[in-house]
Design brief:
This protein has 389 residues and is an alpha+beta fold. The protein has helices spanning 14-23, 49-57, 62-65, 105-116, 236-251, 295-315, 323-350, 356-371, 373-385, and strands at 5-10, 28-33, 44-48, 68-70, 72-78, 88-91, 100-104, 122-125, 129-134, 139-143, 148-151, 153-156, 170-189, 196-202, 205-213, 216-224, 254-257, 261-272, 278-280, 286-287. Bound molecules: flavin-adenine dinucleotide (FAD).
Length: 389
Amino acid sequence: MLNSQKICIIGSGLTGSTIAYLLSKLKLQIDIVDDNYKKKISTKLALSKSSLDQLHNSGLKEIKKKSNPIKNIYLYDSYSEINLEKDLKFSSSNKEKVLAYIIDSTTLLSHLNKNLRNLNNINFIKKKISSISDNNIFKTITFEDFSKKNYSLVILTSGNNLELLPKINLKTIIHKSYNEDAYVFSLSHKKIINNSARQFFLKDGPLAFLPVSGEKTFVIWSIKKDSFNKKYVSNKNYLLNFFNKNFKELFKDINSVSDISVFNLDYVFNELKEFKRTLLFGDIASKIHPIAGQGWNMTLRNTFSLVKVIKNFEDLGLEIGNNIFIEKYLDEVKLNNFAFTTLIDGIRKIFDIKIDGYATMRKNTLSIIDKNYFIKNNLAKVADKGLFI
Ligand SMILES: Cc1cc2nc3c(=O)[nH]c(=O)nc-3n(C[C@H](O)[C@H](O)[C@H](O)COP(=O)(O)OP(=O)(O)OC[C@H]3O[C@@H](n4cnc5c(N)ncnc54)[C@H](O)[C@@H]3O)c2cc1C
């Protein structure tokens, strides 16, 4: 039986920290390397019920209390004008049931960190990596101070930072720009019953409302780089007027708008040319449009698959990180990931077609789906648990 195999996780964002937490329960020594532990930008994440339940069951008991449950999801086709009449509705079948949760990313990250810092098999390293090399038995990381460490497996979770990629031989399968940015901010409003997530498909990009509390709603507004709508996000007063004019019926009085953060949106799917004891996770592996709030949910599903494969190898007394291990993990996730990211890109494309006749057909299709229990039920299952191919 091989004891305490060593793993290196590069990146201490949501992905790196969650993988470290979930793997810490196995017989592994884990180093988390990050050269920049600065405070991360706070955003709100929609986590599917299944994702949050699995995190809860793995010991992160507090996060359910700190998140806001979603009982309804409403889609509005607002191609020609903003229209508050729902085109597609998903609602929980009974009062207790929840469809998803909204959680603050920094709350989740600090909760993970609090847990990680108390664990004996987790070691944080704040150093720059200068090279990554391999021999048959280990992956060797050399740090800027010339110290070296050997690992059975390296998990790269460095998000948008591509600087390490020349060191690991990456193959970009897809890199497509949506030519749009996501503007994210919170609205403070009068107290309402706030348990419905809403997505408005505007001509120039989707506008999503994620309920945070009775008096707060988070907005993710994807806007084409050349769109007239950019005028609204250039000034908080314009924004306040825009939301009060168009959405007063939903939020009563909107009093203020928080600071705005901006994210460039693209669709990325990366793979390694040679795996050699390395796996990619999180945004460095694939980045998808936030239209369905699925990016990190997919990463979580991959993480649970990784835990399952490692546990299986541990139980059989097998070494992790070698080619057989990597192939076993990729067999679990590769096809699903590719199909799922393609599906999300397809959804974005469908709502990006600016032909009036097509827009009418799209609206009609939404209301047909709304009346079809079978299709709706299956869509809800895919949003909750992903595809199973
Ligand atoms: C507008 C928007 C809304 C979204 N909404 C949702 C949603 O509702 N639901 C959902 O599931 N997903 C959502 N997502 C996706 C989700 O936010 C991301 O998938 C997730 O935050 C990515 O986390 P990460 O840890 O992979 O990357 P990051 O958070 O970027 O972390 C990368 C880490 O790696 C470190 N690092 C970088 N380079 C190095 C290096 N050379 N050496 C060491 N460390 C390094 C960095 O310091 C950082 O700590 C959304 C995304 C956007 C843009």
